[in-house]
């Protein structure tokens, strides 16, 4: 959580930190439970490798999106 706040602070500045955190929460809050349900269901179906591959793929997508953010 500290790293995410520091990245938001560096990217958007201290005057925009609250509003950026609020907007990002609109994306983070609904997506996290969906991810847990998908991976949990795959794990319950004994699809261990597939659940780890799913988590890895989503992490890589996050890295790609995060690397495209331009910090001024």
Short account of what is shown:
This protein is an all-alpha fold. About 80% of the residues lie in helices and about 0% in strands.
Q: Structural class, from secondary structure content?
A: mainly alpha
Written as H for each helix and E for each strand, in order along the chain, the element string is HHH
Uncertain residue segments: none
The number of distinct β-strands equals 0
Largest sheet: none
Work out the radius of gyration.
Answer: 15 Å
**Total number of domains:** 1
Mean of all residue-level pLDDT scores: 84
Question: Could you give the distance between the termini?
Answer: 22 Å
Descriptive overview:
This protein has one domain (2-67). It is mainly alpha-helical and 72 residues long. It has helices spanning 2-12, 17-44, 48-67. Helix 2 packs antiparallel against helix 3. The chain contains three helices and no strands. It is elongated and about 45 Å long.
């Amino acid at each position: 959580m500290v790293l995410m706040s520091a990245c938001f602070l560096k990217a958007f500045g201290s005057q925009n930190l609250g509003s950026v955190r609020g907007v990002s929460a609109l994306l983070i809050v609904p997506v996290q439970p969906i991810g847990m349900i998908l991976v949990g269901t795959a794990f319950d179906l004994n699809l261990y490798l597939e659940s780890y591959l799913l988590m890895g793929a989503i992490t890589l997508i996050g890295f790609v999106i995060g690397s495209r953010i331009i910090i001024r």
